[in-house]
Design brief:
Chain lengths: ~290, ~300
């Protein structure tokens, strides 16, 4: 795959992305009912996942395992509702299957596994899939294939030493077909990242390790389109996109609530949030905040 | 035939094989020249080594991965368990200087809980060759097997005579087959199988009937060989590993599961072994043939005393 210089998004493409992102957010809200899910992190990366699947990844919902596909690895596995929702909307599996979230009859649990069509590999323990992605990228290089490997990391995940070990090794092996996307929502489980283990400047850290790095507003589809359109190249440097996002994006009273890392919503909250996504007023939260760690 | 030679030959015949290392090249120094880009050195990064091996395996490769046994099985344990173990991708992990073979390095380098750790991962298989020839004989079988494996690397010259073909899950049994149970069974795996064999020679000079079971693979284990060994008056397990979780535990688990009783004793490492060159370290640790024979005689005497009472 060579550098893709692409025209800007058309109004129709933008509307399509917005519709898709709305549908994915609605799936996330529904999954936060019942047994709950990591809703805030799912909403922060929803636009990223939607954009990547719609305009970047060369994947085929009818043949998820086809040899010439791009790879997407969700390393911050707790935001998998965004991925489940996207895969369902794109036809990797029927939307009805999402109703089986957390059912022992299916395998749609709180972290991804490859029993779900489109999910490349399991995660949940942070700091694992960058190295796995580097292995996939290295094999693609060895075979002379031009597919790419995208790995979505959380910003809190950057606490893990194994991430930086893999960042070093990916640069050493000149894996310019490996692209990290950091969902920079500013929070880890309980605290703001900068209050616990400060991460900034993240882009400069990647650059210092031999990577190309760029920042972007992770909720602005036009900006994402610009960044990913200019991300190609074969200069040997792996790529990092630091996407600034908002935890809980789209639900005003959920945004930036550190005690709402894991959400188990009441039926009323689910209905209210679904209405809010479609233009209704902000929903007051009535269930107590939950932190599961 | 050396390990390096057979691995290079296998890799040249099968492009799926990639040889990886976390800058532990002692056993594979000649392979970069033979394999080119299919020799992958990640530097001193055991976690990334295992993660990248997993990614390569997802693309259809068979990674044969090298690092010091202690660092591979301990530093990267969660990566082995989670990246490799959950799906069972066919990564072959080769632990260098395991057990007593770390010699004078000290406790940081003593992989003496590796068998317990690797055995605890579902689907991960464990090969403990007694010596270099057994490693070379087994390697093609291990590489061809679709499971992930942990291999305790050893390059010593033959430490006991090898009888019959190598087969996964089949032990090698040494001793006369008189049809009746022997006085003593020495059950061993890995480098110390050679010492068990030497101990048996000593004990036979006392007129004892002694069988030596060289397990070769600890997972899967040769249950029938263990059950046969357990029919002896005394069963001694011999391993350069902690008593917890390795060969001794495996035998005891089997006996309990079958509701069988046997007089089982362990020659194993109780905490850390005294760092020294191999010939001295093995004696200090009580893992040499003479020490095994002496302790076996003492246990036999005790059994006779108990029997008279």
């Amino acid at each position: 795959m060579t550098t893709r210089h692409r025209p800007p998004l058309t109004p129709a493409q933008l509307a399509d992305l917005q519709d898709l992102a709305l549908a994915v957010r609605a799936h996330c809200v529904r999954m936060a009912g019942g047994g709950g899910c990591f809703l805030g992190a799912s909403l922060s990366c929803a636009d990223l996942v939607v954009y990547l699947y719609r305009h970047v990844l060369q994947v085929d919902p009818r043949q998820p395992d086809r040899e010439d596909r791009d790879w997407f690895l969700l390393s911050k596995g707790h935001d998998v509702p965004a991925l489940y929702g996207t895969l369902a909307e794109l036809g990797f599996f029927p939307r009805e299957r999402l109703a089986k979230h957390l059912s022992p009859d299916d395998c749609l649990y709180w972290h991804p596994n490859r029993g779900v069509p489109g999910v490349e590999y399991h995660s949940g323990s942070l700091g694992h899939l960058l190295a796995v992605g580097a292995g996939v990228a290295l094999d693609l290089k060895l075979r002379g294939h031009d597919q790419k490997v995208y790995v979505l990391l959380g910003d809190g995940e950057l606490n893990e030493g194994s991430v930086w070990e893999a960042v070093l090794v990916a640069a050493a092996h000149r894996l310019d077909n490996l692209i990290v996307v950091v969902d920079r929502n500013g929070f880890q489980a309980n605290l703001r990242t900068e209050e616990l283990v400060p991460l900034e400047p993240i882009a400069d850290k990647f650059r210092a390790f031999g990577w190309y790095a760029a920042g972007v507003d992770g909720h602005d589809f036009n900006a994402l389109h610009d960044v990913f359109s200019e991300l190609g190249g074969s200069d040997g440097r792996p790529r990092a996109v630091i996407a600034t996002t908002v935890r809980g994006r789209g639900l005003r009273n959920l945004e930036a609530r550190a005690d709402r890392w894991f959400c188990r919503l009441s039926d009323g909250e689910v209905a209210g949030f679904l209405a809010e996504l479609r233009g209704g007023g902000a929903v007051d939260l009535d269930t107590p905040g939950l932190v599961v760690r | 035939m050396s390990y390096e030679r057979i691995l290079g030959d296998l890799a040249e015949r099968d492009e799926r094989i990639v040889v990886m290392t976390a800058e532990n090249r002692a056993a594979i120094r000649g392979l970069p020249a033979r394999l080119g880009s299919r020799f992958i050195d990640t530097g001193i990064t055991e976690m990334t080594l295992v993660g990248m091996a997993t990614g390569l395996a997802l693309r259809g490769r068979i990674p044969v991965v090298h690092a010091l046994a202690a660092f591979l099985t301990l530093r990267a344990y969660e990566f082995i368990r989670t990246d490799i173990g959950i799906t069972g991708v066919p990564v072959k992990l080769v632990g260098y200087v395991p057990g007593i073979l770390s010699e004078a390095n000290g406790p940081t380098h003593q992989a003496i809980e590796d068998l317990a750790l690797m055995r605890a991962i579902p689907g991960l298989r464990v090969f403990c060759p007694a010596d270099g020839p057994e490693l070379v004989a087994g390697l093609p079988h291990i590489v061809a097997d679709p499971h992930p494996w942990y291999i305790r690397y050893v390059d010593a010259a033959a430490r006991l005579p090898h009888t019959g073909e190598f087969a996964i899950g089949r032990a090698e049994v040494h001793g006369d087959d008189g049809g009746t149970p022997p006085d003593v069974s020495l059950v061993a795996c890995g480098y110390t199988a050679g010492e068990a064999h030497g101990a048996a020679e000593i004990l036979r000079q006392d007129g004892l009937r002694v069988h030596v079971v060289n397990l070769r693979t600890l997972v899967p284990v040769d249950e029938s060989a263990l059950l046969e060994a357990a029919r002896a008056d005394l069963v001694v397990t011999v391993e350069d590993h902690r008593r917890v979780g390795g060969l001794h535990s495996r035998l005891c688990e089997l006996l309990v599961a079958r509701g069988l009783r046997a007089n089982v004793r362990a020659v194993a490492i109780e905490d850390w072994f005294t760092p020294a060159l191999l010939a001295d370290a093995i004696v200090h640790a009580g893992l040499d043939a003479g020490s095994i024979a002496a302790r076996t005689r003492a246990w036999l005497s005790q059994l006779e005393v108990d029997h008279v009472r």
